[in-house]
Amino acid sequence: MPLSPKGTALLVIDAQLGAFRSPLIPPVHDGEMLLHKISLLISQARASKLPVFFIQHCGGRGHPLEKGTKEFEIHPAVAPLKDEVVIQKRFCDSFQETSLQEELDSRGIGEIVIAGLTTEYCVDTASRRGFSLGYSVSLVQDAHSTWDATGLKAKQIVAHHNRVLGELFAKLVSADSAFGRQPDFERPRD
């Protein structure tokens, strides 16, 4: 059963130029594949007439996503159309001090499909916060990424978060099938 066009939205988190090319940091792990997967999701959402929300991190001075710099811009491979919503944030939480919840609720959105950056920060926080706010959350397990960290490779961080988030907070879906079927995830009852 396909997703309801009135109840589902795609959130593309922090897919900004600075994550893919910046003099301050190396490119995100598997960046070209990530852009391909996010582009596929955006195309599927648009074809299904589902809203796409772009979340854009406003980094401070010297940050790889410093507001007002070229690196702050959303990557052109996954750029929004002029009528699509772009929400700027200052925190890892896409909902904190932004209009995201109002925008979702005003459109009758009950399910959010999440892709983007960074796995252990903004993607994780959006998944958990969306769940806590009562949204059904689908995490696109092959369309989020991060960087290597001390003691862990980016691939390990992604796999760990897919497992943890998929156990309680989100239904795991793939970029190829995210909008092809109704997720069977249900929130636990109190």
Task: Outline the secondary-structure elements.
Elements (H helix, E strand, L loop, with lengths): L7 E6 L3 H4 L10 H17 L4 E6 L27 E5 L10 H7 L4 E7 L1 H14 L3 E10 L8 H15 L2 E3 L17
Parallel strand pairs: 1-2, 1-4, 2-3, 4-5, 5-6
Helix pairs in contact: 4-5
Please sum up the structure shown.
The protein has a single domain (8-173), classed as Isochorismatase-like (Rossmann fold, 3-Layer(aba) Sandwich). Helix content is 30%, strand content 19%.
CATH class division:
Alpha Beta
Number of strands: 6
Q: Which structural class is indicated by helix and strand composition?
A: alpha/beta
C-alpha geometry: globular
Keywords:
190 residues; disordered N terminus; Rossmann fold; disordered C terminus; alpha/beta; 5 helices
